[in-house]
Amino acid sequence: MENLKTRTTQGIFWSFLDSFGVYLVKFGFSIVIARTLSPDDYGLMGMIVIFISLGQMIMQSGFSMALIQKKDSEEADLSTAFWFNVIAALTVYIILFFSAGAIASFFGKPILVSITRVAAVGIILNALCSVQVSILTKRMDFRKLTWINLAGALISGTTGMIMALKGYAVWALVFQTLAGNMIYLIGLWVTSSWKPAFIFSFKSFRSLFNFGYKILLQGLTDVIFTKIYFPLIGKFYPVSQLGFYTNASRFHELFIRQTSNSVTRVIFPAFATIQDEKERFNTNYVRSFNLLAAIMFLGSLILIISSRPFISLALTDKWLPAVPFMQLLFIEGFFFPLMMFNQNILCSAGRSGLSLKVDVIRKAAILLSIILAFRVGIEALIIGQVISTAVALIISMTAVIKIQGINTPDILIPLIKLFMIVALCLLFNRFVINQLALTEWLDLTFKCTIIPLVFMVSASLSGLHAITELKDLLKSQILPRS
Length: 482
Known about the structure:
Distance between the termini: 21 Å
Helix content: over 70%
């Protein structure tokens, strides 16, 4: 048990370092690039994001998760997954290459032909290293992934920054992404001991596909219903509005989605190894859920209240129209990571079909919100997305509690306390900090220091055990072991 606890704790530490270290580097470069480029440049990239994301999902076809979930992956499984991913990537690229003209015509932007064809190369690059990522994830070797990601972030960020400063406009964003994909590929092939064999087993394919197709369907619908906003906004709103939404979405992706992924990619293999030990599984679920909730509630709170001074200082006032979009998207941080955690728990327990059903309900709610809110405005679309995620969290949490026999108060009471603490912090921010005549720098500083202090003190006074666990987690990784 201690071995799993140690591996999981270290995995979470390095996975979070991946998010908050590697992505801090990306964040720094994003500021420089956003200050240089225009909202229209980001709008052009936003127009093709759904097509590239769908291509990435089809390429993987759920095989990565299937390899992690399978207890004993053989060489035939690994090589079969590799060659299928490569073939799928090439097929997707050919489709996108010849569809680029139709995409450009739909948006009325001829430049999208070349942008689509070049950006889609990233799908092939990712296919060539997807199995290596699965192997390292299953071993919970996130230290190696972190260093590779760091190198990729530095080189891709430098590439994008130099191209932006030299006036390459939207192409700075295209080649920034491709440079990161290339470094990631090289790093994994150089450091990984596994290399694909010329094997394609139909038995292995059926085994992986039987699990993976549910993940694929879930992933495809997730891309469609979360990225559909980009083509909708791009088609019916000015390209600058899509640019504001795209940049807001990039920060949301950076801080909310990537943080969620950093946790779930550790949780899935860790819980998959103890799926047959119900009591141990349940104990670890409760502790992990409450710890994740405390971290994300605090992080999302800071992001929401500090958005305006940060944008004004870091990106300049030309990006201020993106602030309302960012704040609404950051609200999803209270729900999305916990929803993803629950869905990965269901998959770890071998209930990927139930995870898919929960996700279908969420997508139906998103579709309904799009139909009802599309004509109202972009803010209404985002609110619909956030509400849909909250509904999915409630359903997924109920499913896990019912299937595993979790004691409901162990989950519900800490959540209620966290929502009350967040409300208290928002009131303190509104009626104390916002009433002070502060410069933008002081406003940002106060929001990022005093509010977390109020949150931590309130959490400790309310008896949230997750705060103690968070302190112990940090101490175990930062302080030297005797």
